[in-house]
Amino acid sequence: MARAEAAPKGALDRALEILEVLTMRGTATTAELVEAVGVSRSAVYRLVERLEAAEYLVLSDGQWRLGPAVARMAMAAVQNTDVMVVAPPLLRELAQRTGETVSLGVLSGGEIVFVFRESGHHAVQVRSELGARRPLHATAVGKAFLAGLEPARRAETIERLSMESFTEATDTDRGRLAAAIDESRERGWTEEYAEFDPASTCFGAPVFDQSGAVAAAISIAGPNSRMDGRGAELGPLVAATAAMISHRLGYTDRSAAPLR
């Protein structure tokens, strides 16, 4: 029997390819999308305009990135997975114990999207809305996700990062970022001192699923004045909470864990 020929790609296929490219790269110019998708510039323009109108894409400084509609879809998807069943009780316990803001994030379009947040009892808290996006290189939760990746994928991901500067403390050097991730893998948790928000300090750790792959990352954040010097206290607590979540997700192969 003759093999049926593949149906020609339509506009939906091309739009999905654009979303996939941005999921892998994080950002891309129109010219880069034209090259990646393999259609004319006018066709790409029509597609990105439709995707932008539906909030699947946003344009910033000439670069396309995934928009809030994709973040909402990511949140809906993760809410139907075990991590959103297992993690919240443990994160609430951590927030109550420390009094600080605790968050859970998943990867979406080369950035972390917050899908759960719990505030502590202190009057002054670090706050941001669910669905807020955070860069991988300048946040503890982003660095935690990087630390959880297997080495080859981590190196590839770091190479693709935009390394945008957000504060005077943001380090935009890829080599130093890779070295910092290596240090965090030995220490057991990641740290970020005013690199994204000049007023906050954060500590993070990755969460692994039953296969040993990084599924999410958690962080604890608070004002610099209250978090100063608390890394040795809060870092291990974050790492322990992440380990408990991973265990409840079925992660048992400790030899595959990037963090000790």
Walk me through this protein's architecture:
The chain is of the alpha+beta class. It has two domains: 11-66, Winged helix-like DNA-binding domain superfamily/Winged helix DNA-binding domain (Arc Repressor Mutant, subunit A); 72-256, GAF domain (Beta-Lactamase, 2-Layer Sandwich), CATH 3.30.450.40. Helix content is 46%, strand content 19%. It has ten helices and eight strands. It has helices spanning 11-25, 30-37, 41-53, 68-79, 83-98, 140-148, 151-160, 174-187, 224-227, 231-248; strands at residues 57-60, 63-66, 101-108, 111-118, 133-135, 190-193, 200-208, 214-223. It has a six-stranded antiparallel sheet with strand order 5-4-3-8-7-6. Helix 1 packs across helix 3, helix 5 packs antiparallel against helix 10 and helix 6 packs across helix 8 (174-187). The radius of gyration is 19 Å and the shape is globular. The model is unreliable at 1-6 and 254-260 (pLDDT under 50).
Classify the helix fraction into a percent range.
Answer: 40-55%
Average pLDDT score: 86
Q: CATH top level of the largest domain?
A: Alpha Beta
Task: Report the C-alpha radius of gyration, rounded.
Answer: 19 Å
Per CATH, the superfamily of the largest domain is GAF domain
| Strand/helix succession | HHHEEHHEEEHHHEEEHH
Assembly of the depicted chains: single chain
CA-based shape: globular
What is the name of the CATH topology of the largest domain? Beta-Lactamase
Number of strands: 8
Uncertain runs with pLDDT below 50, 5 residues or more? 1-6, 254-260
The CATH architecture of the largest domain can be given as 2-Layer Sandwich
Distance between the termini: 55 Å
Q: How many separate domains make up the residues? A: 2
Number of helices: 10
Widest sheet, order of strands: 5-4-3-8-7-6
